Amino acid sequence: MITVPGVVDRMGPTLLRTVHTPDPTPVVTDVVIAEAAKRTQVSAGDLVLGVATASTADAVELVRLCGQHSAAAVLLKPPHAARTAVRTAAQKAGVALVEVHAATAWAQLVWLLRSVLDAAADEATDALNPGPFGDLFRLADAAAAVVDAPVTIEDANSRVLAYSARQDRTDPARVSTIMGRRVPDDVLARFRSRGVFRELSRGRTAIFVPAQKDGTLPRLIVPVRMGGELLGSMWAVVAGPVSDERAAAFADAAPVVALHLLRRRAREDSDRRRSAELVRSVLDGTGSARLVAAELDLADELHRVVAIDAQADDPRAEGIRLALLERLTGGVGRRPVVADLHGVLYAIVPDGTGPGGWSALREALAVPTGPLAAAGTPVPVSDLARSRAEADEALSLLRAGLVTGPVAAHDDVWAVLVLHRTAVASTGAGVAHVGPLAHLRAREDADWYLDTLYEWLRHPGDPRAAAAALTIHPNTLRYRMSRVTAAVDADLGDPDTRLALLIQLVALRWS
User: Fold this and answer.
1) Which residues form the signal peptide (predicted)?
2) What angle do helix axes 254-284 and 136-147 make, rounded to 10 degrees?
3) Nearest to 110 by CA among 335, 298, 359
């Protein structure tokens, strides 16, 4: 449990400044981004970021909304937080008001705030389960005191899990690492070229990296291992070479960090398994929608089920799914609910334009070389099983190439769905095996006969369009149709005959 002043203290005065704090001090539970296009879903204890606040009036309205829903604090950039009207509104609403440094990027601030909340959750767990571990931020502070330098603790994928105080005594590479919650690619490349990660994998107890020509300060790096597995590393920005005694003392913190990382992984795995079980039950239509909505924090609004699958012929399919799962569950704003079922990722996302909604996810997945993704129609939480079935159906069309990908929504591809369902039903009834079409299909050169008849029936009275679809000249189409008419023992002038033939051809092509 952490309060608003606790969050501000942890973030530091260079990022946040408290303008007003009500009494009693509010407790923080989550981070929410206030959207401009629609009314933001605010819950008790939320830190609400006024990203889209464009005027003092907007700020006042946001503060009032947050007060009505018992939010913990509203975070605004200058000059709105300092306006008298905004402060007065915060006092009346009983909401804390915090000013964000003007140069701070909102997306990076979300990551940092989530770090602080994660650390607070760890502290609460430590209080219930006393042990020698402590939370990672305290461990980072302790390690920094030992080595007399600012420290970050990172996982095996170079993502920042915690950092010590005194990060102002560092270089731009470290600032970018902390603000972005992971080591930037260009910084990783520099350290990789110096063999740092190779040394980490070899089990060295401490690695010293001298200063670099681009201004990057020296680093003392200690791998964090347990049972031979590399769990992460600790990085200290030092002024120069470190004595063996101080380096050894810094390395002594690694086993404690390793135990903490293992415990954190076990807790996250347990939470993820529980979440996945709830998602599976509601998608199968066997779980309680009310229980799922409460435990997974699904807002009372329409949601879509999105089915995401790696390209079938991609040998990296499993790795892509795992990377997608990590990306989806670590997004900005309220995180989507995700589970892996039978090799397909299913995400339950709000049908909206905000962060974590269907529009944002669709944009993120719309990459030609990315995975296939299909969404069901927007439904209440009680009807998610239907949206899942629709997502599966749309995904099958993407896989078959009947819909151009890589992303499709069930409600956008209805015409293809109608043809496909009609074709499947017609094929099951054997409609393509009766009448004159059966004789036409028996010919050795049946393909061009069938293609010509299909496009002619699809473009009634428009031979130019039919010819264009076949990439032939209209005169060639007329010649071919004379051959088709001679081969088909049917009156093509009869509308019912034409409709029956078209249904037969649809059944052949779309089933």
Assistant:
1) none
2) 160
3) 335
CA–CA separation, 78 vs 91, rounded Å?
18
Q: How far is CA 511 from the centre of its chain?
A: 34
Sign of CA dihedral 367, 369, 371, 374: positive
**Cis peptide bond upstream of 26, omega within 30:** no
Which pair of tokens denotes residue 398?
């993407």
Give the tokens for residue 346.
Answer: 């299913």
DSSP string, 424-439: HHHHHHTGGGSSHHHH
Q: Are 98 and 77 in contact (CB under 8 A)?
A: no
pLDDT digits (tens, 9 = 90+) for 47-98: 999 888 889 999 999 999 999 989 999 999 999 998 999 999 999 999 999 9
Long-range interactions of 281-284: CB distance < 8 A, separation 24+: 282/348, 282/381, 282/384, 282/385, 283/339, 283/341, 283/346, 283/384, 283/385, 283/388, 284/385
What is the identity of the amino acid at 504?
Q
3-state SS, 356-370, equals CCHHHHHHHHCCCCC
Sheet holding 219-226, edge to edge: 160-163, 151-155, 229-237, 219-226, 207-209
Q: Over range 11-28, report the average pLDDT.
A: 84
Q: CA–CA separation, 258 vs 264, rounded Å?
A: 10
Dist. CA 37–CA 41, nearest whole Å? 12
Residue pair 308/347 in contact by the 8 Å Cβ criterion: yes
Instruction: Report the distance separating Cα 366 and Cα 244, nearest Å.
Output: 52
